[in-house]
Design brief:
Elements: H1 5-20, H2 30-45, E1 56-60, H3 66-70, E2 76-81, H4 84-92, E3 101-105, E4 119-125, H5 134-144, E5 145-156, H6 173-182, E6 186-193, H7 198-201, H8 203-211, H9 213-223, H10 235-247, E7 254-260
Parallel strand pairs: 1-2, 1-4, 2-3, 4-5
Antiparallel strand pairs: 5-7, 6-7
Helix pairs in contact: 8-9
This protein binds S-adenosylmethionine (SAM).
S-adenosylmethionine (SAM) is lined by residues 10, 13, 17, 32, 61-64, 66, 81-83, 86, 107, 125-127, 130-131.
Length: 264
């Protein structure tokens, strides 16, 4: 019997990410480090301080843990992943003597074993596009946010799906923003960023690289650059490059949606 394509993608993701997070160099990818700094800055701009006494933070699908590092100083951190290799890494990221660091394997984000209204910040970065029931997942995330707390969802942007993708769907910025508003959340910041890795996300380039060995070598070779720490660039310099690319019309590859849950 033919398998459901969405289910196939989930299985493909499981084995891909399981191998991926066993690589030692993942943490050094500068696109991920850039996103980490950018999100730390965004929280700061919104006046959200995870270090505030009593702050509780939850992350779903933390991967190599870049965002987990941003919320690491919260009084309570709960983080879940479906990839066991990421879970191993996430456990090791606990700051010494952290009072409440809970990292577990969990594969069903539509059903989180957590109390309602219990987190000041609930976040998932580049995860929703992999999940089959993204609407149910959003509802579940919002359920566990405290009234007055925040939901931070980060998604790929302006992508086109092609055969073999790890993503189940493409999100339109205006449409996704509206989806969050329709759930009664208040927009705080919608931040489009990370335009400098567009060539590696361009579906025509990727498709070419599958057909032609030379293209494949060129793409894989240049992708290796993502693993080099930005030796000459601080994240602020990279942010300026990002802004300039935005001004000349380059499309972002990532969007952060920060929304607040109503108090009553
Ligand atoms: C692109 S990575 C993002 C990792 C990290 N949050 C980041 O921003 O770098 C997607 C993550 O979603 C998780 N994931 C993929 N498919 C999933 C599924 N069906 N259920 C639960 N988690 C899934 C993977 O384990 C992976 O860590």
């Amino acid at each position: 019997m033919a398998q459901d394509p969405a289910h196939e993608t989930v299985e493909f993701n499981y084995s891909t990410y399981e191998k991926y997070y066993r690589q030692p160099l993942v943490e050094l990818r500068y696109d991920l480090i850039y996103r980490q700094r950018r999100i730390a800055d965004l929280l700061d701009r919104a006046g959200i301080d995870p270090g505030r006494p009593g702050f509780a933070a939850f992350e779903y699908g933390f991967g190599a843990g870049h965002l987990l590092r941003v919320i690491a100083n919260a009084s309570r951190v709960v983080a879940m992943e479906f990839s066991p290799s990421a879970v191993e890494k996430g456990r090791r990221l606990a700051p010494e003597g952290h009072p409440s660091w809970e990292v577990r394997q969990h594969a069903d984000a539509t059903d989180l074993p957590l109390e309602s209204d219990s987190f000041d910040l609930v976040t998932a970065s580049h995860v929703l596009e992999h999940l089959e029931q993204d609407d149910d997942v959003l509802d579940e995330f919002i359920r566990i946010v405290k009234p007055g707390g925040h939901l931070l969802i980060i998604l790929p942007a302006h992508e086109q799906l092609f055969t073999g993708t790890k993503h189940l769907r493409v999100y339109d910025v205006a449409e996704f923003t509206q989806r969050l508003r329709d759930r009664g959340l208040t927009e705080v910041i919608v931040d489009e960023h990370q335009r400098f890795d567009r060539p590696w996300k361009h579906h025509k380039v990727i498709l070419q690289s599958r057909k032609n060995k030379l293209w494949k070598a060129a793409i894989e070779g240049s992708k290796a650059a993502l693993f080099l720490p930005p030796l000459a660039l601080t994240w602020k310099a990279l942010a300026s490059v990002d802004a300039v690319l935005g001004r000349v019309g380059a499309k972002s590859t990532s969007v952060a949606y920060l929304f607040r849950k109503h108090k009553d």
